[in-house]
Amino acid sequence: VQLQASGGGLVQPGGSLRLSCAVPPRIFSIGAMGWYRQAPGKQRDLVATISEGGTAEYKDSVKGRFIISRDSAKSTVNLQMNSLKPEDTAVYFCYARTVVNPMVYWGQGTQVTVSS
After folding, report:
1. CA neighbours within 13 Å on the CB side: how many for 72?
2. Alpha-carbon distance 97 to 92, whole Å?
3. What are phi and psi of 60, to 5 degrees?
4. What is the DSSP string of 37-84?
5. Band of the pLDDT at 79, cuts 50, 70, 90?
6. Mean pLDDT of the chain
7. End-to-end C-alpha distance for the chain, whole angstroms
8. Helix H segments across the chain?
């Protein structure tokens, strides 16, 4: 079972993109959700996470630029990315962690390229 991510693309430095990720209805009891990213030749890093209660945490380098949100009724998690920099270029992966029978589900990854 895979989450459905969308919204990546090519944007100029200083621009904005919004990523979205939908959790299939068959996945129940969702707890934390969030986004990781992986740049070429680098490990996958946590970008932002949001708890079931709505508490958000961010990687230091994106604080003040990225905003994570979730719609629990629709089982979606979004990442609004503003003031994008070339170093934000990466494949972004969404995830959802279940509370009952704990598991982590991943999206397929969406490419974000920041370049002039």
Report:
1. 11
2. 17
3. -55, -40
4. EE-TTS--EEEEEE-TT--EEE-GGGTTTEEEEEETTTTEEEEEE-S-
5. very high
6. 95
7. 36
8. none
